[in-house]
């Protein structure tokens, strides 16, 4: 195939009528405003209920700090969900990553102190677990739901074995412990870190092959394959990325707590997936995005914080969260209702 | 009436709720130490926080036809009858720790259910409440972190707290929120509570020391560690260290002292003695079969009396005294009263 | 893609593509049995064959979607082995698949560039997109096929036809990806296109011939003879004929494909039936979609609705079937007014519907063909709430025989049948039920080979003589005039003309005039 | 082949290529139908070899006691997965069911279990109704109901353990009576599995739910009542959770919000999938879920019997689950796995 054919333009460009349905690409989708409106509504309601405590700078900082873990986890989860898969391993990976980090940093057990290198080491543990999910899922065609469920327990097992029985490993460096809460430009570091990861995630989904292919795979895996996308390989990359996000969240959680614990991840899975769903990312894949997840995370965080502030009985808090979740998805779905709509 | 079992045939079994909580880790340590002292093999059961797992794992061990002397830290009160029945059917002996239905008494079941044992939750709550109130000079506002909502242990401790506070009309309990025994959740809940009440909060009471770790971190993050006092049940090594270091201007003002290793060893040894025929449960007074053990109130002033107990050498010699003095007379935690515990 | 060590020089007479003894089976189904063929350079080769003859399978082998069980493929004289779709693209093969294969949540530009994006390409650098370049290049390719779709539009927002143009544009892009003479493969690209778009495509294909070659699958024999230089006929997975265009007529091709003579396409118009109408529609309308649709059909008669893309005829047909709501007017089925109309009620009242999107709406691919047949009206295959699987299988076997569905095993999942055979089963689902009184058929012949089309038409007529009324959205105006007793012409949601063929005899041009 | 080569058309009478009998679908189906059984038996043999006393000491009895509630929940979950949805609230419903039963068993006696089952079926149906007619994702909706049910349990029980005080002997046979050496409770699950299997295979509604799971649009356009079929699937899930709640009371005589039954969600899903249920819908076999549930129950019990270090047990559990599913999955339709 040596000859070069600088082919003539086959046809001169022709004006043709645009199809009636063709709509130009819009940058700001009106549809996504619903979730933002819901977030604002929540804020307004809680501000009205708690005039003195909700809209204070301290509480805003608290909310941002509380949001930082699910935000970090959410970036990875959203990527995975965009491909139509799911990652249930986050709590286990957070445990394994967090524990690795603590044990490789100056700590009360005096295990090892790699300084900065503890960070990449812990991230590698997360990425390794992500790699495990990705490989088993794509090579053996086991549903991601079950591989990641299994990996959750594997991660937890690793964390438990690392924890062993020689007492809680505490971080020795006070400056390190307080890093997540210290303010930079008025915002807690934990949130800034989360924000950076979220922005990086958004850039990935908008401007890189990895992100765009995630959407493509989620839209229709077979078509994506027919379009030449190495589906398996990209799925693996995405699970590795998600593993890194979970490990990063595990590190952040350990810093916030100032100690290693195999269960630092507790409660983050359902919060994150709920946030992804509330944000409007489709669990079927292909639709949604990281920005939406960020809005979803903020909604849930505001809700949890607001319920405590408003003095709702602890026994009822889960009911109120549940009802708000249902109301939010119902409200989001209502305008789109049609007799042919398929929702799983 | 059941026959005494030959020592050679006995297996000690300790069932714990998980293997990662420091209290549980200490229980395992105690069980191991006793097993070594007695020269009797030991098997650990990890309930993984699940009643069903706990029951079926215990049954799986019973099914091997071994004669067991069992100590169970039940996941839920309602597990006790099922476990006891299984042990009874297999001809083993069991002591239950911490949770059982109030009206389910060993003497109504028979010798195989040797004893139920716990530390008083009310006493724990009162002890720490008093310390907290005194450190605030009888005036101030506190918040409380409870454990899992349906936990009797947590509920009795909170009841004790509220009872003790009656003596301090100027101490106000602003809020009680559950943090599920989880340090991470305690951190988050405390953050929200600090945001809600701001500088009003003078003290944080927790139902256990794990949650204190989280709340201390939150208060440190808020930069108020010098203004807020803490009290909780458990006194774990990191807290001993914080107290010794006078962290936050002696921020930790009260703790109760008891140790998982003592609980596990007392429970196991009681069951073991019944198994070997060294004691006849049916001849024991009720208070020795439904028992509350001595709980010590620790303050920064008497802290030095308690630091020795975490020395591994001490644990070994404590086992000697347990074997010498029997389960009900070993200092520092002798039997104090019969159960069931009454709420004030 | 691996190159054989003895790669011959690319001589003038080396064909663009040569297949030798290619075999491919799926389990016991031999989809392609020992096929050898050539596509010479700078020629358009037509590939025809009955439904299920193995055409699509062959093309999927050529584009790296399937691996052949045995046989060799040479592109430009070199032995190739396509393991992945990219390998085919790298060898200069572009394809428009029979089923649309666009990623509907991505933009037009990305779809067009997708094959290239997945390998190293100028539109990305270090895995990072260069949107402006992507959009610019896409716009250029789109212009070649005469489409002015904005490259930044999300494909999901495009009409069916626009999407097809995007597919074609994407296939044409291969000549930019490899600077060699490309081979473009088109699997029934015209079956979803209207006349005018087909013409654009034809021109494009002729132009393409100057720089490369084209392998073109279609069931429209007239089109094949118009466009192609040679015609290859497949039957039962084998090549049974390879002729130059000049050597054959439409009838020859038909015989080669189907193995029997084409029957004369004549039709006895239904005699004016005095019986009460089975369906009567008055003033049906839906805001923003269509308005004031009225007609009445007596048993055995057929209404053809024609109109260009966007005329609203599809919405009308869906509203009849309860799949879309209507906000004014009434529908009466056998004298009974349709209240709170839904698909369920429509089916219960005896409506049958063949949707244009067969795979999604017409069938449940994962269920067996037999189960699909009995899904709407199980008839003897059910006893109260229970299923009688044996009856189900028996009924299915009969219909498979009658419609000549292949492979002849109704227990296979319907999804594994070829498009034409699926369509036969979908039709049988409704025809097998005595409940069906009104058939609403949206392009029922789409994708059918001429033989199958004939079978289907015969079945429709049988149903008509059994008293069923038909509402037909035909593929072509000729079909409308042939099948219809009445013809409605629609434009922009309104009826612009109405012909009663027992009294009027309009020509296609008359209809066309009212459409645009 | 030259340009003018003309192949002779095949004789017109040639038989079309017909597949040779039904071998193909059957052969592919064999592993699908016995895989879950095989995996379970293999694990059981492994445990029995390492700990010979396991089988002789009544290990199967213990295993089936553990597996019974998992089985019920998994069957309900499989019905929901079969229509392409998921039910995250079923474990919370088990607890709620137990709670309701504990409080009504005394006053209502034999009517209490029936009432409980009816109520749980209704709650399940309400889930399905909101999902089908509100057109919201089941994942989100049932996550919401999960929260509401948890709160309901806490409120009903005042956050403590609720004991069934009277008439507990009504339920005693469930674990007290053995049939073929296995407790009645397990056989209840097996009977449910058989009934559901028959319903899926031999009823129109059964075929309908499968059609909904495979292609909801296709089912809708065939005139099936797809929405109500979904409601039915969720109602069944509710019913199964209700039954599991009855088992909780039969076993422990008490219920508490975070106690027995509250952690059945993940084991239930795992058992359903180990039984060959596809998360994507349309593929399930209730008979195999029996073995799925047994496997899920066996792993922790077996690990303890064999004497694996408790700290390593969750790691073992994770590995075994992945391997088991990899072995039992029907890979025939696995063109796309999500
Ligand atoms: N993935 C598959 N699995 C099993 N059988 C298949 C598969 N793909 C195709 N077949 C079978 O192979 C045969 C050839 O199908 P193919 O789609 O190639 O026909 P076709 O000539 O393109 O028909 P049409 O004109 O209807 O598109 C058919 O019998 C079909 O059922
Ligand atoms: N086809 C597309 N699909 C989806 N998003 C797109 C598409 N094209 C552009 N965008 C989004 O819109 C943004 C602006 O793209 P656009 O091509 O309009 O940029 P531009 O300003 O014209 O670029 P340049 O300055 O390089 O010419 C991109 O960053 C991208 O996020
Ligand atoms: Mg085809
Ligand atoms: Mg520009």
TrEMBL record, chain A:
Q: Where is this region: Disordered?
A: 1-24
Membrane association type: Multi-pass membrane protein
Top-level taxon: Bacteria
Record keywords? Cell membrane, Membrane, Transmembrane, Transmembrane helix
Record's protein name: ABC transporter permease
Q: Which InterPro entries match?
A: ABC_transp_permease (IPR001851)
Tell me where in or outside the cell this protein is found. Answer: Cell membrane
PANTHER family found in the cross-reference section: ABC TRANSPORTER PERMEASE PROTEIN YPHD-RELATED-RELATED, INNER MEMBRANE ABC TRANSPORTER PERMEASE PROTEIN YJFF
Q: What is its main location?
A: membrane
Q: Which residues cross the membrane?
A: 33-51, 63-82, 114-135, 142-163, 183-204, 236-257, 263-283, 290-310, 316-334
TrEMBL record, chain C:
- A Pfam family of the record is ABC_tran
Q: What is this protein called?
A: Sugar ABC transporter ATP-binding protein
InterPro entries recorded = AAA+_ATPase (IPR003593), ABC_carbohydrate_import_ATPase (IPR050107), ABC_transporter-like_ATP-bd (IPR003439), ABC_transporter-like_CS (IPR017871), P-loop_NTPase (IPR027417)
The answer, when asked if Transport is one of the entry's keywords, is yes
The alphabetized UniProt keywords are:
ATP-binding, Nucleotide-binding, Repeat, Transport
Span of domain ABC transporter: 17-261, 273-515
Tagged with keyword NADP: no
Q: What is the native source organism of this protein?
A: Sinomonas terrae
Automatic annotation (TrEMBL), chain D:
Q: Which CDD domains does this UniProt record tie to the protein?
A: TM_PBP1_transp_AraH_like (cd06579)
Keyword tags: Cell membrane, Membrane, Transmembrane, Transmembrane helix
The record's subcellular location field reads: Cell membrane
Positions of the UniProt region annotated as Disordered: 1-26
| One family name in Pfam for this protein | BPD_transp_2
| Membrane-topology descriptor | Multi-pass membrane protein
Spans through the membrane:
34-55, 61-81, 88-105, 111-133, 140-164, 170-198, 231-252, 264-283, 290-308, 314-330
Do you know which InterPro entries this protein is assigned to? Answer: ABC_transp_permease
Q: What is this protein called?
A: ABC transporter permease
Organism encoding this protein:
Sinomonas terrae
């Amino acid at each position: 195939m040596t000859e070069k054919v600088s082919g003539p333009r086959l046809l001169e460009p022709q004006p043709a009528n645009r199809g009636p349905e063709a709509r130009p690409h819009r940058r700001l989708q009106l549809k996504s405003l619903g979730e933002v409106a819901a977030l604002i509504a929540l804020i307004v309601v809680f501000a009205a209920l708690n005039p003195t405590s909700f809209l204070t700078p301290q509480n805003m900082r608290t909310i941002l700090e509380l949001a930082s873990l699910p935000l970090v986890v959410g970036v990875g989860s959203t990527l995975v969900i965009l491909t139509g898969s799911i990652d249930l391993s986050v709590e286990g990976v957070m445990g394994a990553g967090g524990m690795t980090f603590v044990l490789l940093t100056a700590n009360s057990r005096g295990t090892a102190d790699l300084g900065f290198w503890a960070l990449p080491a812990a991230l590698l543990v997360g990425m390794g677990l992500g790699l495990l999910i990705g490989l088993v899922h794509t090579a053996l065609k086991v549903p991601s739901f079950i591989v990641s469920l299994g990996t959750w327990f594997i991660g937890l097992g690793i964390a438990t074995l690392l924890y062993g029985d020689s007492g809680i490993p505490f971080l020795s460096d006070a400056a390190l412990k307080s890093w997540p809460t210290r303010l930079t430009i008025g915002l807690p570091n934990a949130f800034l870190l989360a924000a950076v990861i979220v922005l990086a995630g958004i850039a990935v989904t908008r401007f890189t092959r990895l992100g765009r292919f995630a959407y493509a795979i989620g839209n229709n895996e077979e078509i994506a394959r027919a379009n030449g996308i190495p589906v398996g390989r990209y799925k693996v990359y995405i699970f590795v990325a998600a593993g890194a996000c979970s490990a990063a969240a595990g590190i952040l959680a350990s810093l916030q707590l100032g100690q290693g614990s195999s269960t630092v991840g507790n409660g983050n899975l359902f919060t994150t997936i709920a946030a992804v769903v509330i944000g409007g990312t489709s669990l079927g894949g292909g639709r949604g995005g990281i920005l939406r997840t960020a809005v979803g995370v903020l909604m849930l965080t505001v809700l949890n914080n607001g319920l405590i502030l408003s003095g709702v009985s602890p026994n009822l808090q889960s009911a109120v969260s549940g009802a708000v979740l249902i109301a939010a998805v119902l409200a989001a779905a209502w305008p789109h209702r049609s007799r042919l709509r398929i929702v799983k | 009436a059941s026959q005494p079992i030959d020592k050679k045939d006995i297996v000690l079994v300790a069932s714990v709720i998980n293997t990662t909580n420091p209290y549980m880790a200490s229980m395992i340590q105690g069980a191991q130490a006793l097993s070594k002292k007695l020269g009797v093999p030991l098997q650990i059961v990890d309930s993984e926080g699940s009643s069903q797992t706990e029951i079926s794992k215990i049954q799986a061990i019973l099914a091997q036809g071994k004669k067991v002397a069992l100590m169970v830290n039940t996941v839920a009160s309602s597990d006790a009858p099922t476990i006891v029945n299984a042990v009874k059917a297999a001809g083993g002996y069991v002591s239950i720790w911490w949770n059982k239905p109030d009206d389910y008494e060993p003497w109504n079941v028979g010798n195989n259910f040797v004893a139920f044992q716990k530390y008083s939750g009310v006493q724990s709550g009162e002890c720490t409440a008093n310390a907290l109130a005194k450190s605030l000079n009888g005036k101030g506002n506190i918040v409380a972190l409870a454990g899992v909502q349906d936990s009797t242990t947590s509920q009795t401790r909170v009841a004790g707290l509220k009872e003790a506070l009656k003596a301090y009309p100027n101490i106000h309990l602003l809020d009680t929120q559950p943090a599920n025994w989880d340090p991470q959740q305690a951190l988050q809940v405390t953050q929200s509570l600090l945001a809600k009440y701001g500088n009003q909060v003078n003290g944080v009471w927790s139902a256990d020391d794990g949650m204190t770790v989280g709340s201390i971190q939150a208060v440190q993050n808020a930069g108020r560690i010098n203004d807020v006092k803490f009290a909780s049940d458990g006194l774990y090594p990191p807290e001993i260290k914080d107290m010794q270091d006078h962290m936050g201007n002696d921020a930790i003002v009260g703790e109760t002292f008891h140790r998982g290793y003592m609980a596990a060893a007392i429970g196991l040894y009681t069951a073991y003695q019944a198994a070997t025929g060294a004691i006849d449960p049916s001849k024991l007074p009720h208070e020795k079969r439904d028992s509350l053990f001595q709980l010590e109130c620790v303050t920064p002033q008497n802290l030095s009396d308690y630091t020795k107990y975490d020395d591994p050498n001490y644990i070994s010699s404590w086992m000697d005294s347990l074997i010498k003095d029997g389960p009900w007379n070993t200092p520092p935690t002798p039997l104090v009263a019969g159960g069931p515990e009454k709420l004030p | 893609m691996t190159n054989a060590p003895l790669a011959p020089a690319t001589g003038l007479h080396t064909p663009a593509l040569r297949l030798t003894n290619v075999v491919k089976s799926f389990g016991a189904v031999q989809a392609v049995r020992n096929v050898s063929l050539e596509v010479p350079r700078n020629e358009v080769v037509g590939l025809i064959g009955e439904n299920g003859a193995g055409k699509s399978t062959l093309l999927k082998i050529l584009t790296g979607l399937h691996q052949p069980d045995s046989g060799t493929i040479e592109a430009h004289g070199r032995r190739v082995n396509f393991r992945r779709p990219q390998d085919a693209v790298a060898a200069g093969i572009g394809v428009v698949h029979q089923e649309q294969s666009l990623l509907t949540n991505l933009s037009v530009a990305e779809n067009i560039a997708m094959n290239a994006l997945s390998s190293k390409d100028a539109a990305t650098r270090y895995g990072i997109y260069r949107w402006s370049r992507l959009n610019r290049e896409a716009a250029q390719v789109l212009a070649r096929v005469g489409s002015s779709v904005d490259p930044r539009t999300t494909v999901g927002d495009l009409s069916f036809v626009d999407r097809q143009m995007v597919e074609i544009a994407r296939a044409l892009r291969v000549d930019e990806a490899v600077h060699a003479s490309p081979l473009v493969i088109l699997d029934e690209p015209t079956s979803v296109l209207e006349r005018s778009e087909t013409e654009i495509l034809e021109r494009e294909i002729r132009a393409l011939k100057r720089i490369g070659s084209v392998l073109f699958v279609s069931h429209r024999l007239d089109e094949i003879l118009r466009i192609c230089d040679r015609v290859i006929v497949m039957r039962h997975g084998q090549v049974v004929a390879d002729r130059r265009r000049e050597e054959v007529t439409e009838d020859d091709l038909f015989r080669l494909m189907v193995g029997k003579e084409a029957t004369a396409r004549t039709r006895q118009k239904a005699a004016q039936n005095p019986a009460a109408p089975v369906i009567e529609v008055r003033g049906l309308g839906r805001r923003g979609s269509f308005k004031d649709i009225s007609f009445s059909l007596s048993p055995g008669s057929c209404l053809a609705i024609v109109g260009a893309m966007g005329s609203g005829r599809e919405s009308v047909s869906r509203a009849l079937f309860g799949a879309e709501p209507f906000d004014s007017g009434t529908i009466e089925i056998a004298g009974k007014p349709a209240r709170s109309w839904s698909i369920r009620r429509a089916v219960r009242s005896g409506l049958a519907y063949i949707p244009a999107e067969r795979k999604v709406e017409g069938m449940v691919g994962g269920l067996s063909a037999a189960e699909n047949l009995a899904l709407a009206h199980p008839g003897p295959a059910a006893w109260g709430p229970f299923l009688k699987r044996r009856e189900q299988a028996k009924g299915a076997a009969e219909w498979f025989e009658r419609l000549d569905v292949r492979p002849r095993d109704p227990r296979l999942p319907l999804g594994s049948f070829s498009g034409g055979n699926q369509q036969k089963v979908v039709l049988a689902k409704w025809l097998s039920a005595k409940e069906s009184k009104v058939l609403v058929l949206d392009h029922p012949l789409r994708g059918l080979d001429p033989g199958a089309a004939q079978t289907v038409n015969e079945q429709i007529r049988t149903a008509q003589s059994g008293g069923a009324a038909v509402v037909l959205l035909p593929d072509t105006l000729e079909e409308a005039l042939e099948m219809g007793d009445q013809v409605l012409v629609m434009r922009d949601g309104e009826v612009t003309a109405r012909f009663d063929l027992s009294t009027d005899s309009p020509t296609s041009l008359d209809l066309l005039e009212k459409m645009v | 082949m030259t340009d003018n080569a003309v192949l002779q058309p095949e004789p017109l009478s040639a038989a079309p290529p017909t597949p040779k009998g039904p071998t193909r679908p059957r052969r592919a189906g064999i592993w699908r139908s016995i895989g879950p059984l095989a995996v379970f038996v293999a694990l059981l043999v492994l445990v029995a070899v390492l700990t010979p006393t396991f089988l002789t000491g009544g290990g199967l009895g213990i295993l089936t006691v553990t597996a019974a509630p998992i089985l019920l929940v998994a069957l309900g979950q499989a019905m929901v997965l079969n229509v392409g949805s998921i039910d995250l609230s079923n474990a919370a419903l088990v607890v709620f069911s137990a709670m309701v039963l504990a409080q009504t068993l005394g006053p209502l006696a034999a009517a209490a279990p029936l009432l409980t089952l009816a109520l749980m079926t209704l709650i399940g149906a309400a889930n399905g109704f909101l999902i089908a007619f509100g057109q919201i994702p089941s994942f989100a909706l049932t996550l919401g109901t999960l929260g509401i049910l948890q709160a309901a349990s806490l409120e009903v029980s005042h956050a403590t353990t609720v004991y069934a005080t009277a008439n507990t002997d009504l339920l005693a046979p469930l674990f007290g009576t053995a049939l073929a050496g296995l407790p009645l409770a397990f056989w209840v699950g097996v009977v449910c599995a058989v009934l559901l299997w028959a319903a899926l295979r031999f009823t129109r509604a059964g075929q309908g739910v499968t059609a909904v799971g495979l292609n909801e649009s296709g089912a809708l356009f065939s005139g099936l009542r797809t929405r109500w079929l979904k409601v039915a699937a969720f109602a069944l899930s509710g019913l199964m959770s209700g039954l599991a709640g009855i088992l909780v009371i039969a076993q422990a005589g008490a219920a508490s919000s975070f106690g027995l039954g509250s952690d059945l969600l993940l084991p239930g899903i795992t058992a359903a999938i180990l039984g060959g249920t596809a998360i994507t819908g349309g593929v399930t076999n209730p008979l195999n879920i029996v073995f799925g549930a047994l496997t899920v129950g066996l792993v922790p019990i077996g690990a303890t019997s064999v004497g694996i270090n408790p700290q390593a047990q969750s790691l073992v559990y994770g590995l075994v689950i992945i391997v088991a599913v990899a072995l039992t999955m029907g890979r025939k339709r696995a063109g796309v796995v999500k």
